[in-house]
Each structure stands twice: as structure tokens, then as C-alpha cells.
Amino acid sequence: MNERVVRISQDVAEAVRAVEEAGGRVLHRYDRVLIVEGDDLPELRSDVELTEAENLAVEAFRLRKTPAYQEAKRNRPDRDKEWGKDDLDAPDADEEQAAPSLRAVAKPTSERMINEIAVGVVLVNGTDPGYVMSAADRVAAVADVQEGLDWLAAQEPNAKITWAYDVRVATVDIEPWQGARWKGLPETFYKGIDAALFREDNNATYFFKGDQYVRFSAGSTTADAGYPKPIAGNWPGLPASFQSGIDAAFWRESNDAVYLFKGSQYVRFTKVPDGVDAGYPKPIAGNWPGLPASFEAGLDAALMRKDNHKIYFF
């Protein structure tokens, strides 16, 4: 059977009836845009101006028919696997709770799923650049909804389901992480950092996340301009493994040096602009006497307390 998009100007009920009388079926309905299935269907096209939701329907349908989209669907991870089987973990971490939900999925579709079924799609946009949903994002979202509901309807063809859509775009204009104590951080940093460091030689605080870092100068209430920056190139002499991210960092008062840790190794900067000191990286084991073996294998965090001049490893 062939799927195609038709636009209608006549009464929706009349258009649907005309499709069905010709042996076809309306799969998706967005007001005056229909996605229909069938051969030799009546011509229902018109030159009506489409709403935003109707345009999304048309563009989503076109996207689904592109070779790139179809190839991505064929090659998506775990395509033919089932939850809880085929080495694919159930979505619920508690297996005892997951089991009933998995059994429910295995049951036949509900007998209520027949004829026309309402579908509500809310696309949430933001005003902050990090939360803006692009036009391509919207089309892709609607395309995936169409694709998924096509599959669901095909589980019981005799139900002759038509999905009737109401698509809305909501804009959220709240400030992300409003009231954060460390202003100006990238989104990912607010969700958790890898390491933090205070340097007394320049009175600056540094936060590390992945292969990037930010700096707060003394007295500043927001991140310094130009940050985040990549670790690579800004901490001279670091091994490649450290450039992709670090695990812990601290400044040591006794020698005015900065230490960065990654896995079972660490480096030292006596003067940061001059690069990593000669002879580094070194293993944690043997260079920080008395550490348990689990600490020698890697640290989660480190700090020096100014009030007692002691170093703490976690």
C-alpha cells in the first residue's frame, strides 16, 4: 500500500469517507492535512494555507520517506530487542517492579484502540539558547511520533485506527538554574562537576567537567568571560588522557603547586603557565605514602584545608 499526504478544503468527515469508499484509510489526521494509505485514491489536494501544526505534519511525513531517516531507523540500536530480554535491561531498575510492566507490554493492545484516537503532542521550546527547539527538531519529533504510532496501529490492522492530532508549541521563558550560586556555568556543569580547585596564587576558583573548565576570578559572582575553555592547550604539557577530563584537583600551600589527578596518575604544576613539571605524570601509588590500594587506583576528589594545612583525598 502507498502512503501519501493530502490537503483538504472540504468537510473532514466527507474527505475521510471518500478515502474509505475508495478502499483506503486515513492513518494520521492534522485538521486539513491527512496522511492516507491506499491505491487509486481520490484527489483531495487543495491550495489552502497550512497552519504550523499542519506544516509540521507534512514536513515530518517527507522526512520519514527520506533514505537517511529510513536507514537510521533500520540501524537504530537494539531495534529488534525486547525490554528485559536480549541483554537489554528493563527500564525499571527494580526487577521486581519491572516484571509486571513487562508482562503488561506483552499483552494484546487494548480493545478500546479502534477507529479514531486522539493524540496530543506538546513541543516545549525555550527562550534561552540552550533550550531552543529548532524547526528541524520539531519536525524530527513529529516524524518519530508518526512512525511509532504507525507501528502501534499495525499490531491490530482490523482496528483501522486513525490518529487525530492536536499539536501545540509551548514556550518556557524561565531562566535556567535561576538563583544558582555559581552564575554563568554551562548547563552540564550545573548537573555535576568532575573536579574543583582554588588557587591562592591568583585567587581564582576552577570547575572541571569533561574536557572543559571554567574560572571564577576573586570576588566575581559569575564565570569569567570567554569560558568554558578546553583543558587541552590551556594547561600546557598535560597527557592526552588528562585533556579529556580529570578526576580531582587541588592547590598545595607548602609548595604553591597545583595537582591534577586522572585514574591512577597525577601531574604537578609548580607554575601553571610554564606547563607540567618534568617527570610527570607519576603513579599515585608510592608517591602518596600510606594510601589504601583503592585510593591508589584513582580518586574522586581532593582538597587542602586552609585552616589546618592538611590534604584530604576522597
Describe the structure.
The chain has helices spanning 12-21, 52-64, 67-74, 95-106, 135-154, 187-190, 240-243, 293-296, and strands at residues 3-7, 25-30, 33-37, 116-126, 162-172, 195-199, 204-209, 212-216, 229-230, 248-252, 257-262, 265-269, 282-283, 302-305, 310-313. 24% of the residues lie in helices and 26% in strands. It has two domains: 3-81 and 110-172, no CATH class; 187-313, Hemopexin-like domain (Hemopexin, 4 Propeller). α2 (52-64) packs across α5 (135-154). It is elongated, with a radius of gyration of 29 Å. A five-stranded mixed beta sheet has the order 1-3-2-5-4. Strands 6-7-8-9 form a four-stranded antiparallel beta sheet, with no helix packed on it. Strands 10-11-12-13 form a four-stranded antiparallel beta sheet, with no helix packed on it. The protein has 314 residues and is an alpha+beta fold.
Summary tags:
single chain; 314 residues; alpha+beta; Hemopexin; 8 helices; 15 strands; 26% strand
List the helices and strands and how they pair.
Layout: E1 3-7, H1 12-21, E2 25-30, E3 33-37, H2 52-64, H3 67-74, H4 95-106, E4 116-126, H5 135-154, E5 162-172, H6 187-190, E6 195-199, E7 204-209, E8 212-216, E9 229-230, H7 240-243, E10 248-252, E11 257-262, E12 265-269, E13 282-283, H8 293-296, E14 302-305, E15 310-313
Produce a short descriptive summary:
The chain has 314 residues and is of the alpha+beta class.
Percent helix: 10-25%
What profile does the largest beta sheet have? 5 strands, mixed
Low-pLDDT runs: none
Write the element-wise H/E pattern from the N-terminal end onward. EHEEHHHEHEHEEEEHEEEEHEE
Please count the beta strands (DSSP E, at least 2 residues each).
15
Counting structural domains, the number is 2
Secondary structure class reads alpha+beta
Q: Number of helical runs?
A: 8
- Estimated radius of gyration: 29 Å
Percentage of β-strand residues: 25-35%
Mean pLDDT: 86
* Sheet with most strands: strand arrangement: 1-3-2-5-4
Separation, N- and C-terminal Cα atoms? 63 Å
Apparent shape? elongated
- Give the oligomeric state: single chain
